[in-house]
Amino acid sequence: MAGFRLTKPYTMSKEEVRTAAEGLAKSLEREHGVRSRWQGDTVRITGAGVDGQMSFDGGVIDVSVRLGLLASMFEPVLRSEVQRYLDTHVT
Asked: Residue 19, SS3?
């Protein structure tokens, strides 16, 4: 299985990071048809060929995504989209 992992340190409050994470989850739902489900400070992302999670703790947001064979073709685009969102919304 292909996939990627991104981490980004943050200095924002936990509430601001959660709001940013919720925005990313909603964006991925809209653009890629995945579903998200929160469990504490972790959001699980699932969809056709996509299984991932995003968590934040200790000043670091951590995004880990596994992609099935067909979804792996979109790995560079998806990675770039998530990185751009984190760079724009997480400080």
From this structure: helix
Name the fold adopted by 2-89.
TATA-Binding Protein (3.30.310)
For residues 45, 47, 51, 55, the Cα torsion angle rounded to the nearest 10 degrees is -10
Q: What is the pLDDT of residues 20-76, one digit of tens each?
A: 999 999 999 998 889 999 998 899 999 989 999 999 989 999 999 999 998 899 899
The predicted structure's pLDDT at residue 62: 96
Helices (H), the chain: 14-32, 75-89
Cα pseudo-dihedral 84, 51, 57, 39, rounded to 10: 130
**Burial classification of residue 83, based on how many CB atoms lie within 10 Å of its CB (0-12 exposed, 13-18 middle, 19 or more buried):** middle
